[in-house]
């Protein structure tokens, strides 16, 4: 393999991660407080809470599936690149045909 076939590095910075975590925490807090102070019956509040939790877990699952697919595509790309490099390294244009 060539020297550029390193393990993929994380393209996100610490600041971006912190911003995303704070944004998630703030939005979760806002939705929780909003559901808690909503002037409705407790069963409606519970239904909205379960719906919010379902939405959050679905978003995490979708993000994981997208990340896994991207990593798989990266691995397949590196394998294909290695195969081509091997074929090119073994190829001798000056060798007589059939030898």
From TrEMBL:
<dbReference type="Pfam" id="PF05360">
    <property type="entry name" value="YiaAB"/>
</dbReference>
<keyword id="KW-0472">Membrane</keyword>
<dbReference type="InterPro" id="IPR038972">
    <property type="entry name" value="YiaA-like"/>
</dbReference>
<keyword id="KW-1133">Transmembrane helix</keyword>
<dbReference type="InterPro" id="IPR008024">
    <property type="entry name" value="YiaAB"/>
</dbReference>
<keyword id="KW-0812">Transmembrane</keyword>
<feature type="transmembrane region" description="Helical">
    <location>
        <begin position="12"/>
        <end position="37"/>
    </location>
</feature>
<feature type="transmembrane region" description="Helical">
    <location>
        <begin position="43"/>
        <end position="63"/>
    </location>
</feature>
<protein>
    <recommendedName>
        <fullName>YiaAB two helix domain-containing protein</fullName>
    </recommendedName>
</protein>
<dbReference type="GO" id="GO:0006974">
    <property type="term" value="P:DNA damage response"/>
</dbReference>
<feature type="domain" description="YiaAB two helix">
    <location>
        <begin position="16"/>
        <end position="68"/>
    </location>
</feature>
<dbReference type="GO" id="GO:0005886">
    <property type="term" value="C:plasma membrane"/>
</dbReference>
């Amino acid at each position: 393999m060539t020297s550029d076939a390193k393990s993929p590095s994380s393209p996100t910075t610490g600041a971006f991660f912190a911003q995303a975590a704070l944004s998630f925490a703030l939005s979760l807090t806002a939705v929780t407080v909003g559901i808690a102070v909503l002037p409705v019956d407790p069963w409606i509040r519970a239904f909205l809470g379960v719906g919010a939790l379902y939405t959050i877990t679905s978003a995490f699952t979708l993000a994981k599936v997208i990340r896994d697919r991207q990593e798989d595509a990266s691995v397949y790309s590196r394998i294909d690149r290695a195969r081509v490099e091997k074929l090119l390294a073994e190829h001798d244009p000056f060798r007589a045909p059939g030898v």
